Each structure stands twice: as C-alpha cells, then as structure tokens.
Amino acid sequence: MPGSDIIKRIKQIRAEAGLSQERLAKRIGVSPGNVSSWESGAALPGALALKSIHENLGYSIDWLLTGTGPSTLDSTRQPNDKLKNDLDLKEMTDVLKRLLKDENADIRSWTKIQFEKAFGEYYPVKKIM
Question: Which GO terms describe its molecular function (predicted)?
Fold first, then answer.
C-alpha cells in the first residue's frame, strides 16, 4: 500500500514522544480522527499536517516522507533561526521535487494534490518541476 512506511513513521513518532493519538492531534493541530485514519491506513497526512509535525515535533519532512536522512533536526538549530528556515525550505523543495518524479504514479499524484492544497495559490507546482 502506498504510504505504509509513512504510517509506520507516524506511529514511531507517537511512541518516541510518548503521545496518545489525541495528544499528538492536539499538538499538531488536527483532529484525533485524522491521526487514527493515518495510523489505520485509511488516509495519509497532508502537506500541512506533515509541516506541523516537522514544526512542532522537530522531525525531518524528508524522513517523514521517504525514511531517508536523519529523522530529527540537528540539535544546534534553533526554531526561529533564519538559517534553519532557509534549510527547511530547501529540504521541502528537494523532497517535493523527488516525490514529483517518483516512479509510483500514486505518490506523484498525492504529492501534487497536497502541494496544491497547501501552497497552490502562492506557488504553482509547475514552477518547481
């Protein structure tokens, strides 16, 4: 099933943080039903949810989506550090480019839909492909 590895990583995040589905949901600003749907495989987290996990729990977006690279941010980076924000943007752009070129059409389609939902009015997908 596409996304089954993302499901495993969401469960891993909850376990490492010692959070229930409800507490994780509250921390990242989604409903507990969303987290339940992700973990059961009924749905995948969208771009905004992944961004919120990254911002609130410090997990790398690249790692969340692909399982590659370090799972958490370098401890020397501070949340409001301008360098961090530039590196996060570069990381998100790199991940997005890779996912839009993935051999799995479902992943390419999901990526495009999620990106357009989150940022379409500001930055069309065609500009980064």
Answer: DNA binding
